[in-house]
Amino acid sequence: MKKVLERTKKRVLAVLISAGVILGSLAAYTVAAADEGELTNLALGMPVTASDSMATDYDGGKYYGPERVTDGVKTLEDDQSFWGVNAGKDVGSWLKIDLLTPQTVDNLKIDYRRVNIGNGLYRTFYTPQNVTVQVSNTGNDGDWKTVVSKSNNIPADWADVAATTVFDYQYKLPDNTTARYVRVLFEDGGDSDGIVQISEIEVNGYGSQRVNLTLNKTAEASSCAEEGWTADKAIDGVLSKASGWSSGIKAYTYVGDAYKAEMEQVEEWLSIDLGALCELDDAVISYKREAVTDTIDRFRAVPKYITIQVKEKLADEWKNIVVRSDNVPASWSYTTQSDLGLRTYALNGVSARYVRVLANGSSDDGIRGVQLTEVMVYGTGGAKPEVTGALSLTGVSATRQSLKKAVVKFTSNMPGTVYYAVAVAGANEPTVDTSGAGTAIIKGANTLEISNLSGSGAKEIYIVAKNEDGEVSNTVKVPIDAVSIKMISKGMTTKASSELDVNLGSNKVNDSIGIKDTDQNFWSTAIGQSINSWWQIDLDKAQELAEIRVEYRRVDLGNGNTRYRFVPKTVTIQVSNNGTDWQTVISKSDSVPAIYSDIPKSQEDIYTYSLDGVSGRYLRLLFEDGTQDLDEDAVQLMEVSVYATDYSGIPGTGENTNVNYAVLALLLSSVTVAGILFYKKLVV
Questions:
Q1: What pLDDT does residue 314 have?
Q2: Measured by CB atoms within 10 angstroms of the end CB, which terminus of the chain is less buried, N or C?
Q3: Is residue 87 classed as helix, strand or coil in its secondary structure?
């Protein structure tokens, strides 16, 4: 609702401006906003080391390395993107972020680990006892300054919070704090399990945000050892010992000193396409390590020298920027488990699209090849270079027509082919596949019809186009409004395949009385008739259906908990316009509760099934496989709510705010004082 209010305020403000009202006040407000400095997350994509990280076999082989805390992915996007220490390694554990150059730092924000427990709730998980923040310009032991000491500004462990709760815990640093390295220290460890887990850390300051330009771009190599060690593994953001690129491995000739000459002859390379011209500041390479003990690693398959080359266009010759640098760790040398083997190489702001790392020789007399864990190139840019005659799209707008359909309008400066990808609003930018046929466009005005939207939420369409020479345009991101939905099932006529008795009829399912009220208000099939049983509702007229929400039967145990009983094995959802001819929308979904599972009575546990705008007057839930219950052969439902689209609200809000802007504009233009008072009341 907060977002709706903010949008409403902006629209009202726009009306007031057009009416010539409060211009003096607005001018003062605008100047004040412009004078305020803008903070930037300086840590995004930066290298991170840690005192310890969860083993790679934790939780089914997933890796929870320190780079997870600067990947920009917070809990609400992915509750499995986090860093954690192994049990018992929590006291004195730390994370160290390298900003690559000294930066002015204002504050830190920490997104502590939470787990999605459903129903819009998240549970805090393995929070530390307190947090200390230190800074340094060298990163060396003994050269750290404590700027925040054992702050208890942390969430309680195992606390349930709503997904909408702002969860960035902020730590203000002293004014004019300048540092290259920032260390977050958990001196007193974590919970009783001896674990600390962190989802994301932002280091906010006034320097320039550095971007890892290689992350998830396109890479190729001179050779690859085997599947799983391909070139793309060196630019995936994972700095685990079990990840990276490996060249093809050959055997040395151990006859006299022959192997020494073969070590010098190793020549391998890794090439990365950044996708567009960029200004390159530094390259950071993480060299391959292997575990020796629980705390000690050693470097393996490290090249003797590193050369870094760049070029602007694919047809250009490679230009040397770093030549045979010996700034590399030595193979077989030992290091701590927390050392990521990072080495930095200055690229001096060179402009390039393509970067190649050459391994000159090998320092490993046991592995005849080269292995790199990660290659990161930091700099700025990424916009497509301006090319004379390149295709461009202007005046792009999108209008949502239904749950599944939208129309995009734009103008093209030449004929070509357009491609697009759809994402949920706010999600990561998808890759637009331009390898297929696409949709032909003309020079001038074009209309693109999108018919594969899913769900009622806001979307974003990413559009690119090719001209006749195959040159690809800049990516254009276009927002698409959400669609409001409303419940239409309450009190409507229902029937079922059977009923246990008159007090447990089919009409008990759409009366809005759920487990929060009583566990005795439900529909039940007759005993022994669960196979192919069904429940049906007449919605009075055909409508565009958005989703259906089902509350399955729970029995009150009397101790604050409830238990699932009489749950079907699967559910099939069908619609019809006449109650006779049925169209299956969802077939035998097993998205149902587990029988005999217990949850708190106070916890909502609604199962939602998307109908994606299918039209129908009648809706039927069919339980073809009968019940999961081993004690009684019956299916029981507590509540079913059917939602249809509602286009009566403001486009894009997802809610009916009942604001008539045309009337509002008339009122404000004719009664200026009343308009000002209304605006002030709205923004207070």
A1: 86
A2: C
A3: coil
554-556 and 131-136 strand pairing: unpaired
Closest to 478 measured CA to CA, from 546, 394, 413, 416: 394
Contacts of 101 (CB under 8 A, 6+ apart): 180, 207
Q: What six digits make up the tokens of 22?
A: 């409060």
- For residue 131, give both structure tokens: 């947090």
For residues 248 and 224, what is the distance between their CA atoms, to the nearest angstrom?
5
350 compared with 164, residue with greater pLDDT: 350
Taking the C-alpha atoms of residue 510 and residue 490, their distance in angstroms, rounded to an integer, is: 5
H-type helices in 52-102, by residue range? none
State how far the Cα of 224 lies from the Cα of 239, in Å rounded to an integer.
18
Q: What is the pLDDT of residue 135?
A: 96
Rounded to 5°, the CA angle 290-291-294 comes to 165
Cβ burial, residue 318 (10 Å; 0-12/13-18/19+): middle
What pLDDT sits at residue 32?
28
pTM greater than 0.85 (yes/no): no
d(C-alpha 451, C-alpha 203), whole Å: 41
More confident residue, 585 or 451: 585
Q: What are phi and psi of 68, to 5 degrees?
A: -65, -25
Supply the mean pLDDT for the chain. 83
Q: How many CB atoms lie within 10 A of CB 44?
A: 17
What six digits make up the tokens of 637? Answer: 């439902």
Residue 494 C-beta-side C-alpha neighbours within 13 Å: 27
Residue 165 or 416, more confident? 416
Structure tokens at 683: 């923004």
Beta pairing class for 523-524 and 121-124: unpaired
pLDDT tens, residue by residue, 626-671: 999 999 999 999 999 999 887 654 343 333 333 343 333 343 344 3
Q: Are 307 and 328 in contact (CB under 8 A)?
A: no
For 32-42, write each residue's pLDDT tens digit: 222 335 788 99
* Residues shown for the chain: 684
Give the residue carrying structure tokens 């799983």: 228
- Read off the DSSP letter of residue 407: E
What's the CA gap between 404 and 406, in Å, rounded?
7
Report the C-alpha gap between 660 and 8 in whole angstroms: 11
Cα separation, 182 vs 94, in Å, equals: 10
Assess contact for 411 and 446: CB atoms under 8 A.
yes
DSSP assignment of 420-454 equals: EEEEETTSPPPPP--SS--EEE-SEEEEEEE----
What pairs with residue 407 in β-bridges?
A: 399, 449
**Phi first, then psi: what are they for 234, rounded to 5°?**
-90, 0
Going from the C-alpha of 405 to that of each of 400, 408, 459, 471, 612, the distances in angstroms are: 6, 10, 11, 29, 10
For 486, the token pair is 């409303």
Judged by DSSP in three states, 247 sits in coil
User: How would you write 160-174 as a 3-class SS string?
Assistant: EEECCCCCEEEEEEE
Alpha-carbon distance of 416 to 402, in angstroms, equals 28
- Cα 73 to Cα 201, 237, 248, 428, 477: the distances in Å are 10, 12, 34, 9, 20
What's the chain's Rg over C-alpha atoms? 30
* Dihedral sign of CA atoms 306, 311, 313, 315 in order: negative
**Could you tell me how far CA 19 lies from the centroid of its own chain?**
41
* 51: region left, alpha or beta (phi > 0 left; psi from -120 to 50 alpha): alpha
Cβ 89 vs Cβ 157: under 8 Å: no
pLDDT at 63 (0 to 100): 63
